[in-house]
Fold Reticulon-like protein.
Amino acid sequence: ADVLLWRNKKVSGAILAGLTIIWFLFEVAEFHLVTLLSYILLFTMAILTLWMLSIIGNYVDTLNLFYIVVLCFETLPGLYERHRNEVDNLAAKLYRDSQKLYIKFEHNVLNKIPRGPAKQNKYY
């Protein structure tokens, strides 16, 4: 009731401004809800990525991080070439395990989601 009676002017003004922006986006700028949600999701992902990079930057100096990346680029291809069979076997094992995990997920979760019959397309 305080918001509707404008007793708390900051909250009431913020709500009015937010609703005005939403109205402007949908009516004047002709945004669609899916487009707006995708933009919000992209913005959130960019913010989270920058936040993670700032956390990493707090613990590791930029020059050290650059050195570690260059060191990995220089040594990992040679190590892979030398131990190709072991790495390929490990990758194949990880792939099989992930396939088993997905089959289990599909059986326990996805198959329990009710689905209606698929609509037939009359143009084909």
Remarks:
- DSSP finds four helices and no strands in the chain.
- The mean pLDDT is 90.
